């Protein structure tokens, strides 16, 4: 049974990644070798310009996609200062929690000063599975099997959580793939118009790849537009997907009139918190990957201190 489960986990992890990569490669290949290099209208400078644009959009889409996967969301267990090693396990691998010991264990000082969220019993948030303190907005992902910093959601298309470290690249991917989808949909639609409305080319030059790209392009463009709009709206409000659907508990009592979103710093700073200061890094995604290896910095930025 464990072998079957491992096989299933491997399939669900790698199938979406392989499928999406093949889909992008196929669309790129089909438009170049079944359209641009076949139809006379694209011979010469027009074709070169189209190939350059298509190649650029394809590359930034695929690069931002794999950045989300390779960089990962980040986890509290990456920071030794947040890990508590005073727990033992029984013979079945279950945690033995000494309640008196737990009451005496305190998180790091910066964690205490800046943490806003608490558990139902009023204590600081702690994960007994990962044996670590959970900074604000961190959650344990049952699919990944670990706690995720500033967890937004677990995305099946990446087989990876979207969180503190890779949120920027996730937004970049959505923007890049949206532009790529619009471009290939318009291009394939224009080619279909030349074949079937204006009858400009003989059908022997037509490839069904063009029709498939156009149909899939429309469907994916609509879906990605809706999802991207919702995701960017959340970013501008400094709100995660989990926070949209879960009740949050805070250390200080608030009334319904003044609680609002305690992490909202305004549109400009909400955007900068995730995307950074430089606009070319924000939208394009090239450049040096930001490395955050200080636990205090993570705690500050998860709670909205910039």
What structural category characterises the helix and strand content? mainly alpha
Strand percentage lies at 5-15%
Please report the number of helical segments.
10
SSE succession: HHEEHHEEEEEEHHHHHH
Helical content stands at: 40-55%
Q: Uncertain regions: pLDDT < 50 for 5+ in a row?
A: none
The end-to-end span amounts to 48 Å
| Total beta strands | 8
Largest sheet: 2 strands, antiparallel
- Give the spatial strand order of the biggest sheet: 1-2
Work out the count of structural domains: 2
What is the gyration radius calculated from CA atoms? 24 Å
Mass-distribution shape? elongated
Care to describe what's here?
- The protein folds into two domains: 9-73 and 167-302; 77-154, no CATH class.
- It starts with a helix and ends with a helix.
- The chain has 306 residues and is mostly helical.
- The strands form four sheets. It has a two-stranded antiparallel ribbon with strand order 1-2. Strands 3-4 form a two-stranded antiparallel sheet.
- It is 52% helix and 7% strand.
- The chain contains ten helices and eight strands.
- The radius of gyration is 24 Å and the shape is elongated.
- Strand 7 (153-155) and strand 8 (160-162) form a beta hairpin.
- Its EC number is 2.3.1.225.
- It is a multi-pass membrane protein.
- It catalyses: L-cysteinyl-[protein] + hexadecanoyl-CoA = S-hexadecanoyl-L-cysteinyl-[protein] + CoA.
């Amino acid at each position: 049974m464990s072998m079957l489960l491992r096989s299933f986990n491997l399939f669900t992890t790698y199938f979406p990644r392989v499928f999406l990569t093949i889909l992008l490669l196929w669309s790129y290949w089909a438009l170049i070798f079944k359209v641009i290099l076949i139809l006379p209208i694209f011979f010469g400078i027009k074709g070169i310009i189209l190939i350059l644009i298509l190649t650029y959009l394809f590359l930034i889409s695929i690069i931002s996609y794999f950045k989300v996967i390779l960089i990962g969301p980040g986890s509290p267990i990456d920071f030794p200062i947040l890990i508590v090693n005073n727990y033992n396990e029984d013979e079945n691998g279950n945690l033995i929690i000494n309640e008196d010991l737990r009451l005496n264990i305190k998180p790091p000082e910066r964690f205490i000063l800046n943490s806003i969220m608490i558990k139902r019993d009023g204590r600081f948030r702690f994960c007994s599975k990962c044996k670590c303190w959970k900074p604000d907005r961190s959650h344990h992902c049952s699919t990944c099997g670990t706690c995720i910093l500033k967890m937004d959601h677990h995305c099946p298309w990446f087989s990876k959580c979207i969180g503190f470290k890779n949120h920027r690249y996730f937004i970049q991917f959505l923007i890049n793939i949206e532009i790529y989808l619009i471009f290939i949909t318009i291009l394939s639609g224009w080619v279909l118009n030349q074949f079937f409305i204006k009858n400009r080319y003989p059908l022997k030059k037509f490839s069904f790849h063009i029709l498939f790209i156009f149909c899939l392009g429309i469907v994916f463009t609509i879906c990605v537009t809706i999802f991207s709009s919702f995701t960017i709206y959340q970013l501008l409000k400094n709100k995660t997907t989990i926070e949209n659907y879960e009740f949050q508990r805070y250390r200080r009592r608030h009334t319904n009139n003044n609680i609002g979103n305690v992490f909202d710093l305004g549109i400009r700073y909400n955007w900068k918190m995730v995307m950074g200061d430089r606009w070319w890094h924000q939208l394009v995604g090239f450049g040096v990957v930001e490395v955050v290896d200080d636990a205090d910095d993570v705690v500050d930025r998860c709670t909205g201190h910039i």
